[in-house]
Amino acid sequence: MTPPNATDRRFETGRAVLAVARLLPQISRPRTALFIATTVLVAALPLAMTVATGLLIGAVPAAAEAGPGSPEARDAYLLLAAGVTALLLGRLVDNVHRANAVNLGRELELLLQDRLVAAVARPAGIAHLEDDGVLALLRIARQLGADFIRPERAVRGLAAIAPEFLAAAGASIVLCTFNLWIGLAWLVAWPAIFLAMQREYTRVGLTAYMRSTEMRESEYVRDLAMDARPAKEIRVWGLMGWLLDRYDRQWADRLDHSNRFQRMRVRTAVGVIGALGALTAATGLLLAQAGLSGAVGFAALSVYLVAMTGMFKFTAFDDVAAFLALGSLPVPKVLALESELAADERPVTTELPAEAPARSVRFEQVAFAYPGASRPVIEGLDLEIEAGTSLAVVGHNGAGKTSLVKLLAGLYEPTGGRITVDGTDLAGVDPAAWRTRLSALFQDFTRYQLTVRDNIALGAPHLAGDTDRIWKACEPMGIRALIDSLPNGLDTVLSSEYEGGTDLSGGQWQRIALARALFAVQAGAKILILDEPAAALDVRAEAELYEQFLDITAGLTTIVISHRFSTVRRADRIVVLDGGRVVEDGSHDELMALGARYAEAFTLQANRLARTPHA
Ligand SMILES: Nc1ncnc2c1ncn2[C@@H]1O[C@H](COP(=O)(O)OP(=O)(O)OP(=O)(O)O)[C@@H](O)[C@H]1O
């Protein structure tokens, strides 16, 4: 996602406010209709009161002369009643208008949050979650309802400003009856001033948006200082001072930047106030001349004066005007993100047969580069994985092993070539349906701060209530005794941040995660991916676990990535990856006989292990 360019920015304010206005009927048509009706009334009623007051002032001398009960007195009473009614009704309608705006605003925020979560959850892959533009929007989205980025405030701003706008237009038209040019000047002045100020506010808001990467950085630094997870390293290495320093510097930089923008806003405001002062002085002077020369009567003069001073209620410089600009700013961005992510969706063109993969999964000349990366991590990769067999993938750090399984899981799409399942190109298959056939455990698996039961059942959440099945997944992992020893057994929360909860050792966590993968297999997954499945276990424990996995998952397609050759050698077939290509391919015995990279690395590790019997 790219940030808006200069041309886009000129129209940003109008587009943002329009986007807010267009969303309101989606929340509630009747309440939007009420919003429009009360906007007109809130603008018209004070104007009606002004006119009634002016006419009343003009009618009083004649009524006083004619005496009580006279038609003139009745007219004066009627004008008084009209003025008072307009005043009271104005108050009442104003309250309804504001309350309606607050509710509409809150619901607008909810609507945007919902649409955003749905939009972000929609793409099958995870590439969008590494896109700086998307992350900037997500940051804004997380803050929706906080700080100045509040669409709710935009609706309240709109509610306050729209009637004032109409009232100012009405007052300008009243002034047109005094002097056409003065009236027209006022009619044009307010929208121009309003737009100038909105552009300034928008500029400030956009700067915050454009600096989202810096802001994310400083939020990251702040969270590092406060989170429990990095707390060990930060204290052991004495990083707290360094973190706080860095955070302070980033804040100072942000403040400095925003102060610079504030100064620019003051310049515009001074220019605007100068123009307003000149127009007010000209109007006042002309009114005074007209009054003194008798060209305009006393009643009309008072109406014109009230119209002129009433125009200053218009809040172009007020907080509400800033809220309107800043609060609406994220709205088109959320909508743009929504359509951008929807456009990225690829069409589903084929369905895989229920038994697939029955023959094989094939990587055919697959190439892949991470979004934004200049070089591919996988290039010209050909690999056929026979269904029902176990495959081990080995290679040095950064060789592309994890990237390969991420492609297989559909978390990213190949940038070249294709992956087929029994001959069907995965590009046309519904990724969600494909993933129900996969069970995967990645090396950076998630330690959910949930119960043991949930941590295991998340492998197939629809079977979460099946306790027997959960125990069945735990058994081969050797964690039954561990779970029984926990305060609430399966229902113990795996986090010491909760009362009655507990944390586990690295190896214990890994066994829980393996049980989760096994639970998914029990639920019907046909391909099992294990990326460094037991790096936290000792070599023998890992080899034993993998052996057990192979027994339990016999007949399943299993792909394991490991640096432990005692694990790797148990696979039916081994491929060595280097620079994103397969450079060796065969069984353990075949690769040993080949005497190349695999054999060399295996011998090296075996010799080391032989020297360290407790490894
Ligand atoms: N999300 C990402 N964005 C950009 N580059 C990435 C990303 N993930 C990995 N890479 C790069 O891709 C290359 C291959 O990474 P990959 O994780 O596939 O290697 P690996 O063989 O699994 O390594 P290891 O044995 O260390 O786990 C590396 O150079 C890495 O820097």
UniProtKB/TrEMBL annotation:
Subcellular location: Cell membrane
TM segment ranges: 32-64, 76-93, 268-288, 294-312
Chain ranges of the ABC transporter domain: 361-604
Keyword flag ATP-binding: yes
InterPro entries reported for this sequence: AAA+_ATPase, ABC1_TM_sf, ABC_transporter-like_ATP-bd, ABC_transporter-like_CS, P-loop_NTPase, Type_1_exporter
Membrane protein topology class: Multi-pass membrane protein
GO molecular function: ATP binding
Keyword Membrane included in the entry's annotation: yes
Entry keyword set: ATP-binding, Membrane, Nucleotide-binding, Transmembrane, Transmembrane helix
Main location: membrane
Name of the protein in question: ABC transporter ATP-binding protein
The organism of origin for this protein: Glycomyces niveus
